[in-house]
Amino acid sequence: MTRTEEFEQLRPLLFSIAYRILGSVSEAEDAVQETWLRYELSTTRPASAKAFLSAVVTRISIDVLRSARLRREEYVGPWFPEPLLTDPYEDPEHSAELADTLSMASLLLLERLSPLERAVFVLREVFAFGFPDIASAVGRSETACRQLAVRARRHMDAGRPRFEADRKEREKLAERFFDALREGNIDGLRELLAGDVSLVGDGGGKAPQWASGFFGADHVSEVLATLLPPFIQIGGVVERHQVNGQPGAIFRDPDGKVLNTWTLDILDGRIQTIRTVSNPDKLGHVGPVADAWAVLRETQQVRRDVD
């Protein structure tokens, strides 16, 4: 097998490692590309391409994450990971676990870890790497890596998000939610929401922002029932889609351009959290991005005409 073929075979794994460390599609793709350049320029052939390339992409991702953290501290409003529609890495025996580690809630929890803890957790708990390979990847001793893994696992277990165990039930509830949303059915929405549900968005100061969010079933259902019918009326589209391994949707303007993505956290037969990403800088990989301000003006005009 040629070096190029080896790399392409491992590319899905490398991207999945980088994305879980960085929470950014664009930065993960850049990390993978940089990994290829280093591999191509390497004068020696490693005994294990998987171990070597995983180590390289991990080191690059740790460096990128350290600089990204400074930018995120200055971010306008809530910061969410870039939405990922499909994880290129597949492992049929661990598909459910892999999907849950992609969720917005899990990735936000990973933000609490140090870059080293995050990398060790991802390699060990998500991809089951052995400690010798992890030690090589992060440049620490095996003993230190074991300690990092214990600390990371403790932090994650303390706040680990829980989801509806039955994925089919989760999808059925999401389907009912989006049907009620399109209809502006406030009662139908309210019965699907947890009493303390939260609706929060990441606009990054570059798209219409919902203040600090909306909270509580009554308030959230009223807001949703008010906002969505005008959006549908102007030709907006709500396209059901898995986003970060969870039930969600892509919202598109009348021209089919991406307005935002939504993800739903579902537990105990109710929607606990609705997270939206509308920052245009985080949507380019999903498709051509809409002018969110223009869509807002159109929907507001429809509401004024009705009133």
From TrEMBL:
GO terms for biological process: DNA-templated transcription initiation. One of its GO terms (cellular component) is DNA-directed RNA polymerase complex. Keywords: DNA-directed RNA polymerase, Sigma factor, Transcription, Transcription regulation. GO terms for molecular function: DNA binding; sigma factor activity. The keyword Transcription regulation applies. Residues 108-156 form the RNA polymerase sigma factor 70 region 4 type domain. Residues 7-69 form the RNA polymerase sigma-70 region domain. Pfam families: Sigma70_r2, Sigma70_r4_2. The keyword DNA-binding does not apply. PANTHER family: ECF RNA POLYMERASE SIGMA FACTOR SIGJ, SIGMA 19 FACTOR. Belongs to the sigma-70 factor family. ECF subfamily. Interacts transiently with the RNA polymerase catalytic core formed by RpoA, RpoB, RpoC and RpoZ (2 alpha, 1 beta, 1 beta' and 1 omega subunit) to form the RNA polymerase holoenzyme that can initiate transcription. This is DNA-directed RNA polymerase sigma-70 factor.
